[in-house]
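Anyone? Bumping this.
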Amino acid sequence: MTSVVLELNDVAKRFGDVDVLKGVSLTLSRHEVVCLIGASGSGKSTLLRCANLLESVDGGTVSLFGQSLGDPRVNGDLVRRHVGMVFQSFNLFPHLSVLENVLVGPVRALKRKRSDAHDEALQLLERIGLRDRADEYPDRLSGGQQQRVAIVRSLAMKPALLLLDEVTSALDPSLVGEVLDLLRDLAASGTTMLIATHEMNFARDVAHQVVYLDGGVLVEQGTPDELFNNPQHESTKQFLKRVR
Amino acid sequence: MSLSTDGDSSEETPNLLSPRRHLLFVGRRGVVASTVSTALVLLVIIGLLYFAPGGVRVRASYFNLHDMWVAWNGDPSKGILAIRDGIWTNVWMFLVSEVLVLLFGLALAWTRITKSAVLLPFRVLATAYSDIFRGVPVLLVMFLVGFGLPALYSNLATVPPPVFGVITLTLSYSAYVSEVFRAGILSVPNGQLLAARSLGLTQSSTMRRIILPQAVRTVIPPLLNDFISLQKDTVLVSVIGGVEIARSAQIYQSTVFNESGLVLAAGFFLLLTIPMTRLTDLLIARDRERRLAAAR
């Protein structure tokens, strides 16, 4: 397997009259963690959605494992079985128990035997300390617990790439830590992740590369040290000053 | 200007008690007050009916227990059909219609919502269908189906009218119910769809496993509402010759010139629909509680 997981080449996307992405290029290798930073509306979420074909691109190419997703033979459902996505608002399925939430992907999409998937799901819940809550419904859990379940729900698919869309933005400040700790664990164990985030300290800790987007343009990219300590562009400097 | 909330600087404790006259309706006195007012209202209504100028005549021709008994059991010698036999026509008609309406209504809703290119002609048809059958009165559809279908296929002439009744009710009510389903499906937050698709679930899996189970919960009360209405509309089959409860009562009325059978028929429908209405209200209340609990 090639070590390049995701490659965006001059990707453009527009909604109606609005250019949301104006030619973004980005490469993500195996075991690499890339953080996307930038103001709301800078195109972070759209970029993530183009990477798992929730959105199609209007220009440029997105390639996954060296295959162009623009190829009409590519099946979006199969793409998404290899690319996990976690959302700002958790989006757990409220009519399913915590365990069923984790099982639904492996059983319904991957058609795995429930008994096999069941044990793995419990192990995943064990890992986030929620095994004893497996039979409860999501609305009984705190926001931080729900988001951790949502992350584990994606992990149950054993994705080659995990996309995280501002996963701590909807949480109480006191609950952010537990979610970020889980993501740090994942990064340490080599999970390939593309993370849109407003948590600068987290990005500094965990990212191999940090990408600053502004108005649908990739303004600057570098290691956390380069980008946070020595930003080259004026707009990057301004942004970092505002969020600090 | 001072922004202090301590507007009047007096040291007096504010009065928090209701005026005396309101205490009449508090606690046990409140129970007494509500009982008295209920009794009074009932008395007025009964009085208005009882002492009306035509009261005696109305009691004899609308609320005559003997006539109700005869209408209930029927009288073959005078060609009077028994209401108790007619009831079953209404009951099986609405039971069958309701099942068909659920299936057909869901299929229509699904067709209108999916974005599949292959289904485009069906999507247009489904939209036209729901416009037409929500717009045309059920009575007219009953005539058109009851007389039109046998005209199209003459071998249908021997089919009993209640079958056409079921077809009519299914056609009309599916249009309404499809809108209820559609609203329910669209009320499921888009994030649910995104999350399901992100797990690699196919569009139909997403619909079956994630969207529909959530939609059904919200649509049960409005659905039951439409079913109550459907149950009542089973009487319309009488216009194309179906013999059912209202028709039997009407035969009695036109033979004996006594309307008690009609009142009996009305009572029967109340017996059917009131539990259903109560159930609907209960489900609405429970759903509301669940949402409130979720918001806490």
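Late reply, but here is one note on the structure posted above: The interface with chain B takes residues 52, 54, 76-78, 80-85, 87, 89, 91-95, 104-105, 108-110, 139, 150, 153-154, 157 of chain A (CB under 8 Å).
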